[in-house]
Specification:
about 900 residues, six-stranded antiparallel β-sheet, 34 strands, about 35% helix
């Protein structure tokens, strides 16, 4: 019975007609070896039609085994009469492989694991997962196309009426061209089609007879088409009668035994193009199971995998991986074109130092260091013969490469390339396959790129608006420098340095350094401090500055040599680990943007990337916009700082440099100027020696505040000192000051002033002679706590020409206090309430026994607490006290 069951099972199972197996070690290179093994096996079995799908699936499954599972991978290929089955097993059976029916998704765009199973579901006819105690096996089966062996391509049998129409005698013109495009051969069919005999056209260029372009939207001219290794398409030939005959042409570039190149052109009438036209590749029809489920295979998803990444970077990275696997390459890369199609920017790569190449730009068209094959398919059999043909692959070890353009509606949008380490790996066949794949994904890539640009533009606008608000919110130079750096790191760059230029004759000075890693700031600052700063060139735009990376790598090398004992030690040099860290931090691309304000370079904004990293053009353009705004903000802060410094210096000159010490009398002064940035306003005070044993004091208030009031303050202070020292008494001093103020004309301001002369006495008292010209009256606090006015009010200064002032004598006994204030104290308000003279008198009665400094401080606290809002008027408090006798 058991034998019968086995026999029945054997008859139902497909007969295996060929088998091939190999084991691959758990190293990254094994994935490429597995792809080559499957490709060679299926090629040897004569099944090129399923090679691409089989190689892609094998690559994903072997990657899961050797990279993610970390075990060796066993690959088994089996052929039957109807298809090919490939099994990939790893030796980590405990690792879970989710089934398609699982509630959890098999994989995602951002996940490495599970993508092979998604591809199996999309590409394979059947697939499955099997477990054994020691192995886990994923298998897939691809059915073979049903067509005669040895047929490269075929179409279905059609009825006669469905066949293409042609003349009874189909004529195929065969034209051969030399290296320069001149005609060297012209057959009889060409004579019949175009009316020229061979001797009429030999030696002449084909471009003299071709009418190009014939097909709308074609961007390649006939001269470029004739240089391609293979080309197929439509154009026109101008005949002997002057009429243009539309033709369909197939060009093939060959070389003779001596190596001389030439081009063979086959041409038929446009309506007979079916004779030459290559059969269009069509995606495989969906399997019956898929049809039953109501799904249709999308050619884009067949190539890129399902689900397709919804972000541009993910889509591009998946594209280069699929392209590499499809052509069994060692590396692949994809470049996107700028808006004007003059440059290509590296956006994704595999098998190359992607960090070093990412966002690097290459100019398009011919020339040294340019990408000359971007607009058409190209195959380079050996880059060693033509160095620099593909700048991206310089110094990467790649020898052969195939590149194809990505085009949307005839416009170049990018370039896709696959490279191999061995020469001669690719031919025109691979170029056609890669172009077919590029056509599948070009529109999706362009759509994703436009979406990314829109997001970047919106983000850039938001960034610049926020930056402008922040920069406009400060006029402090140091804070502006800090904001400039903090806005660029890490949003635009990894590190930033700001250089400032004081004037055109000055050298740039390193003013601020910032790195996204705070531990790197000191090393970076030290490194930049040793370098000559970049030249302050006013030319707009970012320019490359190589000095930081070169200096960092040189320092790291010296540190390593000292560690090995090869170089002499330097006790001032940084530790090797510090040098290496600094070199890595600044080893990438560094750019300098000028800070230009009011037609003058006021500094440079330097942005840097870590090792092997480049700036995107969009980031540089954003940084340029930021630098223009930052330059204006920095210059405004500079001007404000300079003017503030000048103003404060002048203001400080209006006050005594220090408070004079008067023997036998305690004196203290508190001064507060209203207004931001003001040190002196309309209020002022002074205390100065007149002669031996005599001292002058004054406290005054000029009408208003600000610079105009401060000017009158300066006049009053210096006039008082000069006149008093000339021997004038109090009334005479004030009368002459009144005349000087009136002489100022329209600039004059009226002035209230309390002026007095002080004589300390040997008995411990002090005699004062005071004149109160329109000023709040001085208050005298006696030891018993009583408070009284120490002078009578008299006319203020700067209003009337003829003044009759008089002075009054006051004697301060030991323990007495004389308090002199400006109206900023007595007129302190909160709503309808005002401190007033009565409030100040009540406050002073609580100050009995306090020192002069304590009295002044208590008055200030009372004024500040009287209202919640800051004081809007200048304020001066002068307190004098005669100490009590011991």
């Amino acid at each position: 019975m058991g034998e019968q069951i086995a026999e029945t099972y054997t008859t139902r199972r497909p007969v295996i007609t060929a088998r091939a197996a190999a084991t691959f070690e758990p190293v990254g290179r094994s994935v490429a070896s597995a792809r080559a093994f499957v490709r060679d096996t299926l090629q040897g079995w004569g099944h090129p039609d399923i090679i691409d799908d089989a190689v892609v699936l094998t690559s994903e499954l072997v990657t899961n085994a050797v990279v993610h599972a970390g075990t060796a991978a066993d690959v088994l290929c089996m052929r039957t009469a109807t298809g090919v089955r490939v099994e990939v097993a790893d030796r980590y059976p405990e690792r879970e492989v989710p089934l398609q029916s699982s509630a959890r998704r098999i994989g995602g765009v951002d996940r490495e694991g599970g993508r092979g199973l998604l591809l199996c579901a999309a590409l394979a006819t059947r697939w499955g997962v099997e477990y054994t105690p020691t192995h886990k096996q994923v298998w897939f089966q691809l059915d073979l196309p049903d067509r005669p062996a040895g047929t490269r391509s075929a179409g279905p049998a059609l009825p006669t009426e469905a066949l293409p129409v042609a003349d009874a005698r189909v004529r195929v013109a065969v034209v051969q061209l030399d290296r320069g495009g001149g005609i060297t051969a012209w057959n009889d069919d060409a004579d019949s089609l175009f009316g020229f005999a061979a001797d009429q056209v030999l030696g002449k260029p084909l471009t003299d007879f071709a009418a190009w372009p014939h097909t709308p939207g074609t961007s390649t001219g006939i001269a470029e088409a004739l240089r391609l290794s293979r080309w197929e398409g439509s154009y026109g030939i101008r005949g002997a009668d002057g009429r243009i005959t539309p033709v369909y042409a197939s060009h093939l570039r060959v070389r003779d035994n001596e190596g001389a190149p030439s081009t063979v052109c086959l041409l038929v009438r446009e309506e007979e193009r079916a004779v030459l036209q290559s059969m269009q590749r069509t995606p495989a029809a969906p399997d019956s199971g898929a049809a039953d489920r109501g799904t249709v295979t999308d050619p884009f998803e067949v190539f890129i995998g399902s689900p397709a990444p919804d972000d541009l970077d993910g889509l591009l990275q998946r594209t280069v991986e699929r392209a590499r696997d499809m052509l069994d390459g060692d590396a692949a890369y994809l470049l996107l074109a700028t808006d004007d199609e003059t440059e290509l920017e590296v956006r994704a790569s595999t098998g190359l130092p992607s960090a070093r190449q990412r966002f690097a730009r290459v100019p398009v068209e011919a020339g040294t260091g340019r990408y000359g094959s971007a607009r058409m398919p190209a195959v380079h059999e050996d880059l060693a013969v033509l160095p620099g043909a593909v700048p991206l692959l310089n110094d990467t070890g790649m020898r052969s490469v195939v590149t194809v353009p990505l085009k949307v509606e005839g416009r170049l949008t990018g370039s896709l390339g696959v490279a191999a380490e061995a020469p001669g790996r690719y031919s025109n066949e691979e170029a056609l396959r890669l172009q077919f794949a590029a056509d599948r994904i070009a529109l999706a890539v362009e759509r994703a790129r436009l979406n990314e640009l829109e997001r970047l533009r919106r983000g850039s606008l938001s960034f610049l608006v926020e930056a402008s608000d922040l920069l406009a919110g400060t006029l402090d130079r140091d804070q502006t420098l800090a904001l400039m750096a903090q806005m660029t790191v890490p949003t635009l760059a990894t590190w930033c340095a700001v250089y400032t230029v004081a004037d055109p004759a000055s050298e740039p000075e390193l003013s601020y350094v910032l790195h996204e890693d705070e531990d790197r700031i000191d090393g970076l600052k030290t490194l930049l401090g040793r370098l000559a700063p970049p030249d302050p060139v006013p030319t707009p735009g970012a320019r490359i500055w190589t000095a930081p990376s070169e200096a960092a790598h040189a320092a790291a090398l010296r540190g390593s040599l000292r560690t090995l004992g090869i170089a002499e030690s330097d006790r001032h040099a940084a530790a090797p680990s510090t040098s290496l860290a600094t070199a890595a931090a600044v080893g990438g691309e560094t750019v300098v943007l000028p800070l230009v304000a009011r037609n003058r370079v006021i500094g440079m904004l330097t942005l840097g990337k870590p090792t092997d990293d480049h700036f995107r053009q969009e980031i540089l353009e954003l940084a340029e916009d930021l630098s223009r705004r930052a330059a204006l903000a920095l210059d405004n802060a500079r001007l404000y700082s300079e003017r503030t410094a000048i103003s404060q210096s002048l203001q400080r000159s209006l006050l005594p440099p220090e408070l004079l010490h008067v023997p036998g009398v305690e004196v203290d002064v508190i001064y507060r100027a209203a207004g931001e940035g003001n040190e002196v306003g309309g209020d002022f005070y002074d205390l100065f020696p007149i002669r031996d044993g005599a001292y002058g004091f004054a406290i005054g208030d000029v009408c208003g505040t600000g610079p105009e009031a401060a000017a009158v303050t300066g006049l009053a202070r210096h006039a008082l000192r000069l006149l008093a020292r000339e021997g004038y008494g109090g009334p005479a001093v004030l009368e002459r000051l009144n005349a000087a103020i009136l002489d100022e004309g329209a600039r004059s301001r009226f002035l209230t002033l309390l002026y007095g002369e002080l004589w300390p006495q040997e008995d411990g008292s002090a005699v004062l002679k005071v004149v109160c010209a329109g000023h709040p009256l001085p208050l005298r606090l006696r030891q018993d706590g009583t408070v009284e006015a120490a002078a009578d009010p008299q006319p203020l200064l700067g209003v009337m020409e003829d003044l009759e002032l008089y002075e009054q004598t006051v004697t301060l006994e030991p323990g007495d206090v004389l308090l002199c204030v400006t109206d900023g104290v007595t007129e302190r308000r909160e709503g309808a309430r005002m401190l007033g003279d009565d409030g100040l008198t009540d406050l002073l009665t609580t100050c009995t026994g306090l020192t002069a400094g304590a009295v002044a401080a208590r008055v200030l606290r009372a004024v500040e607490r009287f209202a919640a809002e800051p004081a809007s008027d200048d304020m001066a408090i002068l307190a004098m006290r005669v100490p009590e006798l011991p």
